[in-house]
Q: What sequence folds into this?
């Protein structure tokens, strides 16, 4: 007996009916049944509504988009980097490239975008408008210039316009407005300090943050240079210089503009571990507030950024992928997390991970061994292969495809734990294993 | 089968996070499905459960028995790539987690001083009540027996356990006053006078009758009574006997599967139309077939022979005419001279149900006996609203929930 399947036409018709009939109801959601807890706290002399800020990017280069984002609950935005009139912004398209990996569509995203095509006149007005319409939101501007007088003019005008912070891009990895083409300002400790001083000189009230690059031999030196310049904060850190891939039939790398390509700035989940290290390293050595950016896409990521020292967290790629609506789960997830952890405010998270970071020399030397939870093992033997060819040949094939750990050969490197698709392997102290045997 | 924590995480990653998501539009309760799935993906299970519960008061029950192939999953765009996201499993994972870890406490507004009586403690009634208390309106809910409606009383235990129903009703009962007892027409008038509005969600309490000779024999059992008695453990089928179920709907299949599980040797479903006219859910049909239930199409009962007990069912062959009924299906007629007997010890009559409550004669009804309402779920009596099966006939739980929630919206706006 065969049941009649729903035909495509029937489904389409039904879907249209649903939509027509119910769109009003979808819009008219009942009053918020589970309201969020208060996520506000002070940072950089500003009362942040929540720690989720839009990074300087296409999402912050349009007044209507910004209005929508604020209305949806974003705590603030850094308006896309602007410059003085007369600076030529010569964009090339297409500019975006996905880095897809094993089924994840946007493991990372590359862009060859440049600064905003809107010059200071436009951005100045946007700052004024947004501060008027959304006085509680954190409205910052990002600037980039070459000459001292340009940097200072930008700062003065934006301060006058009411910006809550000015972020100076010393690190755009694609185009550069400096004299040294391809080199970023923040790659030179001396140039960083000099330029940062110019910028700080021009501000009387507004805090200045310098956006730096992880592409340096010693991030601490750069951060110290910013500190001695008198600037107020650091934004860590910008996208990473990357080559997004190569078409192996035509040999034209990505993105392809005719037969040519160039290096991109890489953002998204792929760069999160690098950003975490950059923030942590700065926070451990320099006493400056940090605006975290580069690879955060969920509230968990934001908590991690804050735990290693960021005061707020900027988002870009996640929004470009899934829209401003990602703020819903960012706020909701953080709200529940604070409840669960019994934290008073997001500020309580800042720096929580830092005491646990030590130099390799100071790590405890304990003897650990791999332990496979046989009840949960599904028998794929991926750990067996990994250990055989990448570890210490300490895992053997067992009865019913359940791998066995040779306790004499296993050094406890942890490779198996991290290749196991079921996450059913853990590292245990040798002593506790012995105790269990008794 | 319940999905594991890791399984839920993996499945949630398959969701494309579509804009203007078809799944949300197809869900009668309009659960923000991409929203709760992205919360699951980030590990925010409580947030996911709250998202579901905000839209669907009977969240756990629907997570267990909602016919997802008819609603959300039937339009999942991931199916165009490989297979639809297991939305219902993810929904159930979230709400079950919440039930186990303690319900989030909803923030209800201060009392407005308005009072509404809700008659019927099933999905529609509870959803309406929950929608009203969310708007600061206090609710007195009245139910004949134990609240829970169809999910508690007549969905077979193998499809829905008491645990899910109880977790929903226990959660919802915190916010409303519940009174048990029959509502007489007199009591109904009292309730109307005492409250600012009344919502009627009493469902369908009475089985439709075949009106054929022999129907009064003790072995002929109306399906609701059969399912209720089977669920309460008051077994009605002797093992090794033959059961004929009359009717071709989901409830018939539930009854057939239940009879088989109770030990009936042979279970035959007879249906007066063909397979194309049968509107049943895949899962129900699969379960019935797995248990060995047979379905005879184009067969209609004409009498139940027997003196004191059922001996069988006298049937006729039918054929479809060009005429269609209200549901757009072709009407069957009996083929003259095609009579034959099917042996049976019990006959379960599952040809549909109708409203039972006595006070309903106060309200205008449709030709089929359901309560007549306008687009705002208003009945012919001012201030009296209705929703769920008593309005739409035998619908799904989630549709009843959606109507209850809609009624709450309309009632709140009118007060």
A:
């Amino acid at each position: 007996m065969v049941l009649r399947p729903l035909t495509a036409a029937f489904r389409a018709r039904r879907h249209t009916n649903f939509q027509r009939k119910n769109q009003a109801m979808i819009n008219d959601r009942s009053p918020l049944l589970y309201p969020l807890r208060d996520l506000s706290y002070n940072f950089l002399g500003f009362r942040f509504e929540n720690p989720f800020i839009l990074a300087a990017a296409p999402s912050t280069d349009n007044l209507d988009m910004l209005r929508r984002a604020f209305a949806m609950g974003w705590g603030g935005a850094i308006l896309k980097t602007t410059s003085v009139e007369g600076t030529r912004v010569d964009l090339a398209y297409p500019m975006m490239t996905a880095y897809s990996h094993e089924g994840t569509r946007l493991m990372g995203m590359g862009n060859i975008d440049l600064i905003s095509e809107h010059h200071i006149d436009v951005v100045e007005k946007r700052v004024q408008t947004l501060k008027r319409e959304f006085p509680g939101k954190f409205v910052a501007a990002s600037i980039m210039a070459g000459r001292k007088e340009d940097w200072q003019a930008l700062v003065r005008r934006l301060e006058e316009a009411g910006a809550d912070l000015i972020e100076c891009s010393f690190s755009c990895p694609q185009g550069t407005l400096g004299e040294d083409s391809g080199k970023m300002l923040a790659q030179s400790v001396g140039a960083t300090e000099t330029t940062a001083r110019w910028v700080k000189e021009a501000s009387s009230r507004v805090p200045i943050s310098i956006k730096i690059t992880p592409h340096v031999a010693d991030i601490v030196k750069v951060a110290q240079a910013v500190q001695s310049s008198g600037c107020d904060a650091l934004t860590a850190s910008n996208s990473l210089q990357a080559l997004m891939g190569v078409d192996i039939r035509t040999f034209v790398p990505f993105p392809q503009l005719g037969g040519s390509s160039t290096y991109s700035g890489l953002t998204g989940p792929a760069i999160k571990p690098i950003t975490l290290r950059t923030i942590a390293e700065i926070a451990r050595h320099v006493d400056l507030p940090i605006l975290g950016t580069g690879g955060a896409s969920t509230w968990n990521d934001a908590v991690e950024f804050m735990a290693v020292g960021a005061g707020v967290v900027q988002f870009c790629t996640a929004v470009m992928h899934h829209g401003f609506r990602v703020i819903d789960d960012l706020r909701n997830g953080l709200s529940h997390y604070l409840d669960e952890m019994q934290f008073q405010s997001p500020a309580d998270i800042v720096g929580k991970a830092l005491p646990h970071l030590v130099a390799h020399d100071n790590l405890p030397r304990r003897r650990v061994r791999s332990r496979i939870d046989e009840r949960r093992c599904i028998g794929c033997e991926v750990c067996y292969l990994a250990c055989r060819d990448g570890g210490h040949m300490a895992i053997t094939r067992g009865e019913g495809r359940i791998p066995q750990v040779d306790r004499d050969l296993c050094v406890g490197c942890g490779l198996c734990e991290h290749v196991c698709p079921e996450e059913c392997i853990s590292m245990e102290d040798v002593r506790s294993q012995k105790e269990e045997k008794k | 089968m319940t999905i594991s924590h890791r399984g839920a995480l993996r499945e949630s990653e398959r969701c494309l996070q579509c804009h203007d998501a078809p799944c949300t539009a197809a869900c009668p309760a309009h659960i923000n499905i991409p929203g709760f799935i992205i919360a699951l993906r980030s590990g925010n299970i409580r947030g996911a459960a709250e998202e579901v519960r905000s839209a669907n008061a009977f969240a756990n029950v629907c997570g267990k028995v909602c016919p997802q192939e008819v609603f959300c999953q039937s339009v999942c765009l991931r199916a165009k790539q490989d297979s639809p996201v297991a939305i219902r499993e993810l929904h159930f994972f979230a709400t079950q987690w919440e039930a186990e870890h303690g319900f989030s406490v909803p923030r209800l507004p201060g009392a407005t001083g308005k009072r509404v009586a809700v008659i019927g403690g099933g999905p529609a009634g509870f959803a309406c009540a929950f929608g009203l208390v969310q708007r600061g309106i206090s609710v007195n809910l009245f139910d004949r027996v134990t609240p829970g409606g169809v999910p508690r009383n007549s969905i077979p235990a193998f499809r829905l356990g008491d645990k899910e129903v109880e977790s929903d009703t226990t959660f919802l009962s915190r916010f409303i006053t519940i009174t048990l007892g029959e509502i007489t027409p007199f009591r109904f008038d009292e309730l109307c006078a005492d409250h600012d509005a009344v919502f009627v969600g009493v469902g369908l309490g009475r089985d439709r009758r075949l009106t054929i000779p022999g129907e009064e024999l003790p072995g002929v059992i109306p399906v609701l009574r059969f399912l209720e008695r089977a669920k309460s453990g008051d077994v009605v089928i002797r093992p090794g006997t033959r059961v004929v179920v009359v009717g071709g709907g989901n409830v018939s299949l539930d009854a057939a599967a239940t009879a088989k599980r109770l030990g009936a040797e042979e279970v035959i479903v007879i249906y007066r139309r063909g397979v194309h006219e049968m509107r049943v859910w895949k899962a129900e049909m699969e379960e019935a077939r797995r248990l060995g239930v047979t379905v005879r199409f184009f067969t209609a009962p004409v009498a139940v022979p027997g003196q004191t007990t059922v001996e069988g069912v006298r049937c006729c062959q039918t054929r479809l005419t060009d005429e269609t009924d209200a549901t757009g299906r072709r009407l069957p007629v009996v083929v003259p001279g095609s009579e034959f007997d099917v042996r049976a010890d019990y006959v379960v009559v599952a040809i549909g149900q109708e409203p039972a409550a006595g006070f309903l004669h106060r309200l205008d009804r449709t030709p089929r006996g359901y309560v007549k309402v306008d687009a705002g779920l208003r009945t012919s009596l001012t201030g009296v609203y209705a929703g769920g099966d008593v309005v739409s006939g035998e619908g799904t739980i989630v549709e009843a929930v959606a109507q209850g929630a809609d009624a709450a919206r309309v009632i709140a706006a009118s007060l």
